[in-house]
């Protein structure tokens, strides 16, 4: 089927359209946005789908906004099962081997390449996926000629001890202040009323090179290395108002990134 399709879609969800409708509506400028998260342990207070929830909610809102501004972006179903082996010990975590995740991303890219769309963007809600997404970007570029990008769903960081926020010493990476606040905003009914105790590995925070959040020396770890609850951070004081700020910043960031991607050229 070619030419104009006889209706204007009301949804920017890729999977809401029929195959012929999608083929008729997409062009080489179309952007396929793929949220990716995880189903993994987030302490006793947050849902297992925290990362998938964040990625899907922010990606969907960003696609709707940029589409209204004329960017032809479409959001695909969220990839929820991913590389979460740092939480392998915790019941409820559903994780895949890294090679399995990579194969899945390549297969998804190959399928997108069969449509007119030539740009794929992964919006990621889980830190364990970051290196795999970098690998997948190049695989999809090399194998199928796609323009490929990946980005975090949020621009939040560890609590900094300012304006009532806890000081997580740069170590608030999992189930801490920011992540808990974000879920309090997105899905308050899924957050348990009792927060876990502060669990910040301050001995690591004092190191110059080894650590989390962009320190240059990475190390192998599982979340139970830091205690039996699997939380790395300080959820005490988390609140929905801060979560809304993080959400708004995340949507703004993804929208700005999609605008740059829309105009991106090589050379």
Based on the model shown, name its key terms:
single chain; 267 residues; alpha/beta; Rossmann fold; globular; zinc; Creatininase-like_sf; hydrolase activity, acting on carbon-nitrogen (but not peptide) bonds, in linear amides; Creatininase/forma_Hydrolase
Description:
InterPro entries: Creatininase-like_sf, Creatininase/forma_Hydrolase. This protein has a single domain, classed as Rossmann fold. The chain has a 4-stranded parallel sheet, with helices on both faces. Helix 2 (50-68) packs across helix 5 (177-186), helix 3 packs parallel to helix 4 (130-144) and helix 5 (177-186) crosses helix 7. The protein has 267 residues and is α/β, with parallel strands linked by helices. It has helices at residues 19-25, 50-68, 98-113, 130-144, 177-186, 202-205, 240-262, and strands at residues 31-36, 73-75, 119-124, 147-152. The protein is built from 7 helices and 4 strands. It is globular. The longest helix is centred in the C-terminal third of the chain and has 23 residues, at 240-262. Strand 3, helix 4 (130-144) and strand 4 form a beta-alpha-beta unit.
């Amino acid at each position: 089927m070619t030419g104009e399709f006889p209706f204007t879609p009301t949804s920017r969800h890729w999977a809401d359209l029929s195959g012929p409708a999608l083929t008729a509506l997409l062009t080489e400028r179309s952007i396929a946005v793929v949220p990716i998260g995880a189903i993994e342990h987030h302490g006793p207070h947050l849902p297992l789908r925290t990362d998938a929830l964040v990625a899907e909610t922010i990606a969907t809102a960003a696609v709707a906004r940029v589409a209204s501004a004329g960017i032809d972006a479409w959001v695909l179903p969220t990839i929820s099962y991913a590389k979460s082996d740092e939480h392998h010990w915790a019941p409820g975590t559903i994780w895949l081997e890294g090679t399995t995740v990579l194969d899945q991303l390549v297969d998804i890219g190959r399928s997108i390449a069969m449509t007119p769309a030539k740009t794929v963007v992964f919006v990621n809600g889980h830190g364990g996926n970051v290196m795999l997404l970098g690998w997948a970007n190049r695989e999809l570029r090399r194998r199928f000629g796609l323009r490929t990008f990946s980005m975090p769903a949020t621009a939040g960081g560890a609590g900094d001890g300012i304006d009532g926020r806890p000081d997580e010493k740069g170590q608030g990476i999992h189930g801490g202040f920011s992540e808990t606040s974000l879920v309090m905003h997105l899905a308050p009914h899924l957050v348990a009323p009792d927060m876990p105790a502060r669990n910040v590995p301050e001995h690591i925070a004092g190191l110059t090179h080894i650590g989390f959040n962009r320190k240059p020396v990475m190390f192998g770890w599982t979340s139970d290395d830091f205690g039996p609850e699997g939380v790395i951070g300080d959820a005490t004081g988390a609140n929905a108002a801060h979560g809304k700020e993080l959400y708004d910043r995340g949507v703004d960031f993804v929208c700005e990134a999609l605008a740059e991607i829309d105009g991106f050229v090589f050379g």
